[in-house]
Amino acid sequence: MTGSSRARRGGPGGGYHGRVGIFTDLNLNGRTPVRVQPRNGEWGPLGVPSTRAKKIQRIIAPIAFVVVLAGLSALFYYFYRILIPQG
Fold first, then answer.
1. 5-49: per-residue pLDDT in tens?
2. 0.90 surpassed by pTM
3. Which of 9, 21, 71, 79 is deepest in the core (most CB within 10 A)?
4. pLDDT score of 61
C-alpha cells in the first residue's frame, strides 16, 4: 500500500487522526505549544468567541434556519390561499 493511500484513509503513517462529529475540536490553536499561541487577551485573542459559544451557535443556527423557513412557508401558503380563489 502506498503512502498516499494511507494518508487519504487516515491510517498509520499520516492523515487525520482526530475524531469527527458534530462537535469537532473547535479550539483553533490545536496542538501548538502554549509559547507560540497568541496572547492578546488574558486567555486568548480578543473578540474571538469561546469554544462554548461556538457549540451553542452550531446548535442555534440550524434551529433558527428551520423556524424561519417554516414561517416563510406558512406566509407564502397564506398569500397563496388569499390570491387564488377556491371554487
1. 444 444 455 555 555 566 666 666 778 887 877 665 666 667 777
2. no
3. 9
4. 95
> In whole angstroms, what is the distance from residue 23 CA to residue 20 CA?
8
- The alpha carbon of residue 68 and the mean position of all alpha carbons in its chain are separated, in whole angstroms, by 19
What's the total number of domains in the chain?
Answer: 1
Q: HSE on the CB side for 57, CA within 13 Å?
A: 7
Count of all residues that appear for the chain in the document: 87
Given a contact cutoff of 8 angstroms between Cβ atoms, the answer to whether 52 and 58 are in contact is no
pLDDT digits (tens, 9 = 90+) for 65-87: 999 999 999 999 999 999 998 76
Residue 49 to residue 57: CA distance in whole angstroms: 10
Q: Are 10 and 17 in contact (CB under 8 A)?
A: yes
Domain of residue 54, residue span: 15-83
In a domain, 9, yes or no: no
